[in-house]
Design a protein that fits this description.
The complex is a heterodimer of chains A (414) and B (80).
Chain A lengths: L15 H21 L10 H31 L9 H21 L2 H28 L4 H29 L6 H32 L6 H25 L4 H21 L9 H13 L2 H6 L3 H36 L9 H4 L2 H23 L3 H39 L1
Helix pairs in contact in A: 1-2, 1-11, 1-14, 2-3, 2-4, 2-6, 2-11, 3-4, 4-5, 5-6, 6-7, 6-8, 7-8, 8-9, 9-11, 9-13, 11-13, 11-14, 13-14
Chain B lengths: L5 E2 L7 H11 L6 E6 L4 H10 L2 E4 L8 E6 L3 H5 L1
Parallel strand pairs in B: 1-2
Antiparallel strand pairs in B: 2-4, 3-4
Helix pairs in contact in B: 1-2
The chains are: A mainly alpha (414), B alpha+beta (80).
């Protein structure tokens, strides 16, 4: 048995700054809807739409993925992180880049677009540099490590394509729509879905009491995505808007959602945790995004996936990670032998259920506003987004507040 | 694996870690307990090392589960 490098474990607080930023961006997305009304729901090329999509893709999903990855790699794979002390700077660069991109797209402002075009690929390169050597050095879990490595490559490709588009827009160059399609396909399938599938292989059995997809089947799926996505992208660029790329994206997303729902199906009702319920809701929303995309309804597919389904999946993971991280921090603060509350008591199921209900309402209103794009309905959907992500953020902050209060009470009585 | 091992494979996270730390906390100096974790418990091993326990994981089984022997150092060892 090789000696484990336990000294490489990250500081417990390392992923927190990313996970706490996520609901803030969710609230920002709601505010954009409140300001712009139905404008972002008419056309994918409207400046307000582009800003909103990137607030969701980078601010909400990106922060959750960065934070989860930094927490997950050392914990589940034993992969050490390089340059852990730079995580605060990575967080600042990524979130500043996201803010500048949203601002630049919304207001067609050259300066913010130029800066975002530098900061965002830098942040993805930074994340890759922090994690890649650990992925190679770790032992075992080859399929998991391959999936994460592939997702990092997909994220980097997305960021580089996005930077080229942002810099082009800053230089008043017209966007080739097919290049935007390739950027979006790599972002959703090559980065987000690949990472969720890889991490879900471990976290679903651990947290949701499911089985696992057979390793051979997942390896074939991963290989298929890694082959089909670049080929379909190249074909899309050459043939100008061929059906192959949407089909690959739809098939990749749908197969992930179907496989995860299939794993969830046999779990007895008594063992269905709130994480299970969040994931089931998210997967059920993700599933119709595939036929919507294949049928040419890109706006609907984008709202289902980026606005509702995927945020439900990653948001629920944050509701598990933050109490666990806080619990570890509490253990380190109180004297040995003092009993501390269990992880589940730091964020009880009632709190998670409130978040799920608020997200479900906000998601339903968003889809209604997309199907009947009227200003009042879009603003109502925006208000619901603010409420849902406010509930989410309140739950996360409540964990940290209660943990700190408990530690103080122990210190006072000691 | 012995009948005295604390089998945590049927629990979902983070209960295995909570139970293992509770079991470690109940150990008298010099005592040991063995747990069966559903997979290599990296955060548990980190935490045990932080708390000053000796934890020796065995090679993972075919199903990914891992037996870990947790030992609380005796008073003499702690003093040393």
């Amino acid at each position: 048995m090789p000696k484990l490098r336990l000294e490489q474990a990250p500081a417990a607080t390392l992923p927190l700054r990313f996970l706490l930023a996520m609901p803030c961006w969710g609230i920002a997305g709601g505010v954009l809807l409140l300001i712009d009304g139905a404008a972002p729901l008419h056309s994918r090329w409207h400046p307000a739409t582009l800003a909103l999509v990137h607030v969701w893709a980078l601010g909400v999903l990106g922060n959750a993925m960065f934070g989860s990855l930094l927490q997950f790699l050392p914990v589940a794979v034993g992969a050490p992180l390089r340059g852990r002390r730079t995580a605060a700077w990575l967080h600042a660069a990524f979130n500043l880049g996201t803010l500048l991109l949203a601002l630049g797209l919304r207001c067609n402002a050259r300066g913010p677009l130029l800066l975002a075009g530098v900061l965002l690929p830098l942040a993805f390169l930074w994340l890759t540099a922090m994690t890649l050597s650990g992925l190679f050095a770790a032992a075992g879990e080859r399929l998991l490590r391959a999936g994460i490595g592939a997702a990092l490559g997909g994220g980097l490709a997305t960021a580089l394509l996005g930077a080229a588009l942002a810099l082009g827009l800053a230089g008043a160059q017209p966007w080739p729509p097919v290049l935007v399609d390739v950027h979006a396909a790599f972002g959703v399938l090559g980065w987000i879905v690949l990472l969720l599938a890889a991490v879900g292989r471990v976290t679903m059995p651990m947290f949701q009491a499911t089985g696992s997809v057979p390793a051979r089947a997942q390896a074939i799926w991963l290989g298929g995505v890694l082959l089909a996505l670049p080929l379909a992208s190249a074909w899309h660029l050459v043939r100008t808007a061929d059906i192959a790329l949407p089909a690959v994206l739809a098939a990749g997303g749908a197969s992930f959602a179907l496989a995860a729902l299939g794993l969830q199906w046999p779990v007895p009702a008594a063992r269905r945790s709130m994480l299970y319920r969040h994931w089931r809701a998210g997967l059920l929303v993700l599933l119709p995004a595939a036929p919507a995309l294949a049928g040419g309804h890109g706006m609907l597919a984008g709202a289902l996936a980026l606005g509702v389904g995927l945020p439900l999946l990653v948001g629920a993971m944050a509701l598990e990670i933050v109490p666990f991280v806080a619990w570890i921090g509490l253990r380190h603060r109180v004297p040995r032998g003092v009993r501390i509350p269990g992880v589940q008591r730091l964020l009880p199921d009632a709190g998670k259920r409130r978040v799920l209900l608020a997200q479900a309402l906000a998601g339903a209103l968003l889809l209604a506003a997309l199907l009947w794009p009227q200003a009042w309905l879009a603003r109502l959907a925006g208000l619901a987004q603010v409420g849902a992500w406010g509930t989410h953020g309140h739950a996360l902050l409540g964990v940290l507040r209660d943990t700190r209060a408990y530690a103080h009470s122990v210190e006072r009585t000691a | 694996m012995t009948p005295d091992d604390l089998d945590l494979r049927h629990l979902y996270a983070p209960l295995p870690m909570e139970r293992a730390l509770d079991a470690a906390n109940r150990l008298a100096p010099g005592e040991a307990v063995a747990i069966i974790a559903p997979r290599m418990p990296y955060p548990l091993l980190t935490e045990l090392a932080h708390l000053g326990y000796d934890a020796e994981p065995e090679a993972p089984q075919a199903d990914g589960s891992v037996r870990v022997v947790i030992r609380r150092p005796g008073n003499a060892e702690t003093a040393a």
